[in-house]
């Protein structure tokens, strides 16, 4: 999916790893951004720590901690033979990292030895979040059938797969660690078909000296039915480790806030009846702004069109407040047929594709910019924002449009100005713009109806 380099951060005087797409095709760039955003906020000793996302003259890359380690199966089979104690210690680390990922509502989907490194001090680190999926809207746009076939769970071949699919992959890694061979080998489709119909030979029939407890755990993880596989807590207990529920988690559900959800629903009804509404949600860190917005958006259904994004202090990219929204727009446009797409595209779509190249994957040949030297951003921005304004207005004419931007306190001044240009005046008739930010954050000056929700810490009653 990309190339990884060792680099030196001259400002902080630390070594880092830098990942960049193999080329600048829009789908490669979108994949890279999704990888960074899917797990940028997760902090756990058994997960690789992502650092910062950058764009520079059309080149996209992100940095992360530099790891010096050995692939999982190499570590637990020093000299080609299983070391059971090493296997148990390394498995506990892998289970801890994967459980933290699951506790945050995410699924890795590509657990394998090369994505699980063991450092010299014994720290196990799960890395490569390129296929991570979960509850975020951006992840819903990913290709469902993804992963490495020999490590995938049987249900992944049909586009399904939650946390049990990751535990199946752990079972494959464990089987390979115990025996030195894979439970199933061959071409991708053949392997997945066999996994749905067969159980692999017991590890003890493939190699001598396999510990009975690890063999049984391995076979349990490789159950064809997802519901019969053990989860993180049970695996950790069987390995003699701590409960995995100690892993840090993000809030997984909204507690209270019925009044605020009601006001958001009222804003939606007002926009459909009387014109655009801006909802500003203010609150200190940790009071639940993000959870409130995600819960509201998650309850919306067709024909409402939802475009969402989030600002991040660790993203050094142009128009950072709009970038995620445009990515969401690109994914939506890519699902339209040619007739519906042509009915939406404004005449100056090429300028929009120059400013946001990710859109070229959606425009198909009609609006793809000609191959020429890139114009300066100052010359591109005004016509591009004008085209984006018309495109969003076209979507709003077909159905109610909800645009949500979280953590607006990290927006750059260009983004705030662009938001003012996009949503000014009377072009929009059926739009709700939701902006979530910390208190005293600078927000765009928008005309029309405005609702302010001040969130304090929630308490019962």
Question: Any idea of the CATH class of the largest domain?
Answer: Alpha Beta
Average pLDDT reading:
87
The tally of domains stands at 3
Poorly predicted sequence stretches spanning 5 or more consecutive residues: 135-145, 245-251, 365-372
The rounded Rg comes to: 24 Å
User: What distance separates the N and C termini?
Assistant: 50 Å
Tally the helices: 16
Structural class from helices and strands? alpha/beta
Count of strand segments:
15
- Biggest sheet: strands, sense, closure? 5 strands, mixed
Q: Based on the structure given, which CATH architecture of the largest domain is correct? A: 3-Layer(aba) Sandwich
The CATH homologous superfamily of the largest domain is termed P-loop containing nucleotide triphosphate hydrolases
CATH topology of the largest domain: Rossmann fold
Q: What sort of overall outline do the alpha carbons produce when their principal axes are compared?
A: elongated
Helix fraction bin: 25-40%
With strands numbered from the N-terminus, the spatial order across the biggest sheet is 1-2-4-3-12
């Amino acid at each position: 999916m990309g190339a990884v380099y060792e680099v030196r951060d001259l400002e902080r005087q630390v070594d880092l790893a830098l990942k960049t797409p193999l080329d600048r095709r829009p789908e490669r760039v979108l994949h890279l951004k999704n990888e960074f955003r899917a797990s940028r906020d997760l902090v756990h000793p058994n997960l690789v720590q992502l650092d910062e996302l950058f764009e520079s003259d059309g080149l996209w890359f992100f940095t992360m901690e530099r790891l010096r380690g050995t692939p999982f199966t190499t570590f637990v089979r020093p000299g080609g033979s299983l070391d059971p104690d090493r296997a148990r210690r390394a498995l506990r680390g892998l289970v801890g990292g994967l459980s933290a990922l699951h506790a945050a509502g995410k699924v890795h989907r590509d657990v394998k030895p090369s994505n699980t490194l063991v450092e010299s001090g014994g720290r196990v680190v799960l890395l490569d979040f390129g296929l991570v999926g979960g509850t975020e809207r951006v992840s819903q746009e990913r290709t469902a059938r993804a992963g490495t076939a020999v490590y995938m769970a049987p249900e992944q071949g049909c586009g399904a797969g939650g946390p049990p699919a990751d535990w199946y992959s752990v079972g494959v890694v464990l089987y390979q660690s115990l025996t030195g061979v894979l439970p199933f080998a061959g071409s991708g489709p053949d392997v997945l078909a066999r996994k749905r119909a067969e159980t692999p030979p017991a590890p003890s029939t493939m190699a001598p000296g396999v510990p009975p407890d690890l063999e049984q755990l391995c076979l349990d993880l490789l159950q064809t039915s997802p519901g019969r596989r053990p989860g993180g807590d049970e695996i950790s207990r069987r390995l003699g480790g701590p409960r995995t529920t100690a892993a840090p988690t993000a809030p997984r559900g909204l507690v209270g806030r019925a009044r605020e959800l009601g006001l958001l629903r009222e804003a939606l009804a007002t926009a459909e009846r009387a014109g655009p509404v801006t909802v500003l949600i203010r609150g200190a860190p940790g009071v639940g702004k993000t959870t409130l917005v995600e819960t509201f958006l998650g309850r919306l259904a067709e024909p409402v069109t939802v475009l969402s994004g989030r600002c991040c202090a660790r993203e050094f990219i142009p128009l950072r407040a709009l970038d995620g929204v445009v990515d969401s727009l690109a994914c939506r446009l890519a699902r339209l047929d040619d007739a519906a797409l042509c009915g939406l595209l404004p005449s100056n779509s090429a300028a929009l594709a120059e400013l946001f190249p990710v859109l070229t994957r959606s425009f198909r040949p009609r609006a793809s910019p000609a191959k020429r030297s890139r114009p300066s951003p100052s010359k591109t921005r005004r016509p591009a924002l004008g085209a984006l304004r018309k495109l969003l207005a076209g979507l709003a004419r077909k159905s109610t449009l909800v645009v949500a931007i979280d953590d607006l306190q990290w927006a750059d001044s260009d983004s705030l100005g662009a938001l003012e240009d996009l949503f000014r005046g009377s072009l929009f008739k059926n739009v709700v713009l939701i902006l979530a930010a910390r208190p005293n954050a600078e927000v765009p000056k928008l005309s029309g109806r405005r609702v302010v929700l001040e969130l304090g810490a929630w308490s019962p009653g």
